[in-house]
Amino acid sequence: MHTVWKGSISFGLVNIPVKLHTATENKDIKLRQLHKDCNTPISYKKVCEGCNKEVKDEDIVKAYEYAKNKFVVLDAEELENLRKENEDKAVEIIDFVKIEEIDPIYFDRSYFLSPDATGSKAYSLLRKTLEESGKIGVAKIVIRSKEQLAIVRVYKDSLVMETILFPDEVRNVVDVPNIPSEQTVVKKELDTALLLVKQLTTVFEPTKYTDEYRTSLMELIEEKKNSSTVTASDRQNPMPDNVMDLMTALQASLDKTKKKPTRKKKTAKAKTS
């Protein structure tokens, strides 16, 4: 499993060297965009609106737009120093709370935590402590240059870290339009609704839920792939300027060696004449 972060988690004086692994994966089916006339994939270029020309990566800087068309340019070195300054810090569990106290709207992404070679004993201690206390740890961590609030909890036999949103990242519910004010509910309707809930109440089994749209889409793709409806591009995709096909490189080398002796012979004849 790919490691996305290495560091340590501490609670009190206990320090646990750990690795972070992405716990979930996006199963969305990615569809390419093709030119309708020739079925060639569409590419996107970085173009400067002011100069109306394509811009290379090395000519791009990062900036914060604090007002319309007014920017504060941030130097790459400044950003890198700021990132290192925060990433070098260990993840410290600052509080222990009950998971029921955190509304699901705050949860973001999940990561598996695995102990480093020397961290198994401390890892087991934290896992057992969380199990016995019935609590989860609240911590801070910097991932990909962004400081994240996170919780550490037990999931089966492992520790899981889940990033959660900061309070100012959750929009205020009062800004949601057309929310009805509290109204009197007809008792008969409520009783019927509660009866329906009771009939549909069960134990949560995640394996019984599947993405029916994704399954149907893959079936359609396989059906078209195995039929005569498969299309191919009329031409090969142009290769990037900095990438050369191996056969092309070999042929160019052969052509270059063939041309050298030919030039020498012509030069020699010219001198003789």
UniProtKB/TrEMBL annotation:
InterPro entries documented for this protein: DNA_bd_Ku70/Ku80, Prok_Ku, SPOC-like_C_dom_sf
Lineage: Bacteria, Bacillati, Bacillota, Bacilli, Bacillales
UniProt region (Disordered), positions on chain: 252-273
Keyword DNA-binding: yes
Assembly information from the UniProt record: Homodimer. Interacts with LigD.
Compositional bias segments (type: Basic residues): 257-273
GO biological process: DNA recombination; double-strand break repair via nonhomologous end joining
Gene3D superfamilies tied to this protein: 2.40.290.10
HAMAP family: Prokaryotic_Ku (MF_01875)
Purpose: With LigD forms a non-homologous end joining (NHEJ) DNA repair enzyme, which repairs dsDNA breaks with reduced fidelity. Binds linear dsDNA with 5'- and 3'- overhangs but not closed circular dsDNA nor ssDNA. Recruits and stimulates the ligase activity of LigD.
Source organism (scientific name): Viridibacillus arenosi FSL R5-213
Gene Ontology MF annotations: double-stranded DNA binding
Keywords recorded for this protein, A-Z: DNA damage, DNA recombination, DNA repair, DNA-binding
Family (UniProt): Belongs to the prokaryotic Ku family.
Domain Ku: 52-181
Pfam families named among the record's database cross-references: Ku (PF02735)
Superkingdom field: Bacteria
Name the UniProt record assigns to this protein: Non-homologous end joining protein Ku
